[in-house]
Amino acid sequence: MAEPHVVTAGPAGGQPVVLVHGVGSSSAYFRRLVAVLARTRPVVALDLPGFGRSATPRRPLTVAE
Questions:
Q1: What is the number of other CB atoms lying within 10 angstroms of the CB of residue 45?
Q2: Which of 50, 51, 60, 65 has the most crowded Cβ, counting Cβ within 10 A?
Q3: Are 48 and 4 in contact (CB under 8 A)?
Q4: What is the pLDDT of residues 16-29, one digit of tens each?
Q5: Do residues 52 and 26 lie in contact, with contact meaning Cβ atoms separated by under 8 Å?
Q6: How far apart are CA 25 and CA 22, in angstroms?
Q7: What is the DSSP string of 27-46?
Q8: Alpha-carbon distance 43 to 9, whole Å?
């Protein structure tokens, strides 16, 4: 399985905020929020498989995957 597309921003160190989009969306949904949060903390926003800039899986994924 290909690695998901991940957006990182903000200073190194500190407690990161991880943003995960819902079905039918992508990390682009969080663009403005990432910019605001990244002023004071590390931020990670990712695209789930098959969404945004992440590759579409070759087969259906299980919940565990």
A1: 24
A2: 51
A3: yes
A4: 999 999 888 999 99
A5: yes
A6: 6
A7: GGGGHHHHHHHTTTS-EEEE
A8: 5
CA distance 45 to 21: 8
Rounded CA-CA distance 29/2 in Å is 22
| Rounded distance between C-alpha atoms, residue 28 and residue 8, angstroms | 12
pLDDT of residue 56 exceeding 90, the answer is no
Calculate ∠ Cα 22-27-33, nearest 5°: 100
SS3 51: coil
**Residue that has been written with the tokens 């949904």 in this structure:** 29
